[in-house]
Amino acid sequence: MNLDALKFPIGKFKTVDFTQEVINASIEDLKQFPTDFEALVNAVKPHQLDWLYRPEGWSIRQVIHHLPDSHANGYMRFKFALSEDHPTIKPYNEANWANLPDTANAPVQSAIDFCKGVHSRWVALLESMSKEDYERTLFHPEYNRTFALKSYLPLYAWHGKHHLAHIKQALAHENQF
């Protein structure tokens, strides 16, 4: 299996046309995510937590803690864009976050609980948004680019599935990386 296939087991994110169907499907994906996340994480045995999903990739443990970290950042980006005029967001170094002591030491249940809380609030916010709200923008300094919330919604729906596939991939390869 080539490295690109290991990095993107469900394929790279593809920009989609912004339609009501895309909004509904993305919100449904984000609503369902904590359930799928919890079921998969609960299937991981303690000795499997340090298995990698690809050579030089993150461990299952790191992916588990990354998901609520990332989605909390996503939720906050939506809140900033809805409450401020074209805010500049604060990027974060995902790799450095994945190597912090809380990732190595916090129980995976804390990531599940955090994910459930973030998604509960995020979905409530998303379901209250108008089509015009999705047009609101933010500036991402790392990419030196403006993004509309409508492009972030399906991206985060994809993101959750992308990393769940990484966990499944690590389990299927039984620590061969």
Helix-strand layout with pairing:
Elements: H1 3-7, H2 20-43, H3 60-83, H4 94-98, H5 101-105, H6 108-128, E1 137-140, E2 145-148, H7 149-173
Descriptive labels:
mainly alpha; 7 helices; 177 residues; Four Helix Bundle (Hemerythrin (Met), subunit A)
Brief sketch in words of this structure:
The chain is mainly alpha-helical and 177 residues long.
Radius of gyration: 16 Å
Structural class: mainly alpha
Query: If strands are numbered along the chain, what order do they take across the biggest sheet?
Result: 1-2
Instruction: Give the terminus-to-terminus CA distance.
Output: 12 Å
Q: Approximately how much beta-strand content do the residues carry? A: under 5%
> What percentage of residues falls in helices of 4 or more residues?
55-70%
H/I helix tally: 7
Polypeptide structure, described:
- The chain is mainly alpha-helical.
- It has a single domain, classed as Four Helix Bundle (Hemerythrin (Met), subunit A) (Up-down Bundle).
- Helix content is 62%, strand content 5%.
- It contains seven helices and two strands.
- The protein has a two-stranded antiparallel ribbon with strand order 1-2.
- The chain is globular.
